[in-house]
Design goal:
single chain, alpha+beta, five-stranded mixed β-sheet, 5 strands
């Protein structure tokens, strides 16, 4: 049963990186993907932070970062030359899952997308994340496309 939690959202700061990486590695899939040195995360954070079309967002509860996501705003020639928002790296502290934090996080993503005039929010989710897929469908996301990736 979800509990109302007083989670606040803000743009991430450099000193949030250690906690963000901890959230990214908080399951078997994430733990297998992450592992760069903090220096590499710091360099990437600086790139994200300098780009007005990229946001790294955190959610705080009682002064502790408990959620994160990256939002990228992409102007597209398709869909009437609209802007779409790509939602990536969505993570909620495992001790808080099922308590409404993820819904609040995605509400924040949608608010920011609407604020920027986005016509569409899109995301990808690893095929092994069944709980996440149910969550996104409950938010109204449709599995409308097949995704493809190629390691470069």
């Amino acid at each position: 049963m979800p509990t109302h939690l007083d989670v606040t959202f803000r743009d991430a700061r450099r000193d949030d990186l250690t906690r963000i990486v901890t959230l990214l590695t908080d399951d078997a899939i994430g733990a297998g993907r992450e592992g760069a040195s903090l220096d590499e995360y710091e360099a990437t954070f600086a790139t994200i932070d300098a780009d007005p079309n990229n946001l790294l967002v955190v959610g705080e509860l009682d002064g502790v970062v408990v959620a994160t996501m990256q939002l990228t705003f992409v102007p597209t020639i398709s869909r009437g030359a609209s802007t779409r928002m790509i939602v990536e790296a969505v993570r909620v502290d495992s001790t808080l899952r099922g308590r409404g934090v993820g819904r609040l996080l995605m509400d924040e993503a949608h608010r920011r997308g609407r604020e920027r005039g986005c016509a569409l929010a899109q995301l990808t989710s690893d095929k092994r994340r069944g709980d996440a897929h149910r969550f996104y469908r409950a938010l109204g996301y449709e599995q409308s496309h097949e995704g493809f990736k190629l390691a470069l």
